[in-house]
Design goal:
Layout: H1 2-48, H2 51-89
């Protein structure tokens, strides 16, 4: 009986870890797609060359920089959580 409960708990733990990894993967994929679109838009605005386009490109560049910092923060948090889980299992 105890081994069955232990097995169920371990299965749930593995399922949640897999779900967490999938969530992070999707988040990473979504971020990379957004980043690519921002870069393309910034490049298009820079090519236009007028002052309004340059201002808009600067705003987008700043926003992209903020997005990168936030994603880096999330990535660091995810990595630390994953490392703690790995350390617990060893």
């Amino acid at each position: 009986m105890f081994s069955s409960i232990k097995s169920i708990i371990k299965s749930v733990e593995l399922y949640l870890k897999l779900k967490n990894k999938k969530f992070y993967y999707e988040l990473h994929k979504e971020f990379k797609e957004k980043e690519r679109k921002f870069i393309e838009e910034i490049e298009e605005l820079r090519i236009r060359g007028d002052s309004h386009s340059a201002n808009r490109a600067d705003l987008l560049r700043n926003y992209l920089s903020t997005e990168r910092r936030q994603f880096k923060h999330l990535s660091t948090f995810y990595t630390e959580a994953t490392e703690r889980d790995t350390d617990k299992n060893n």
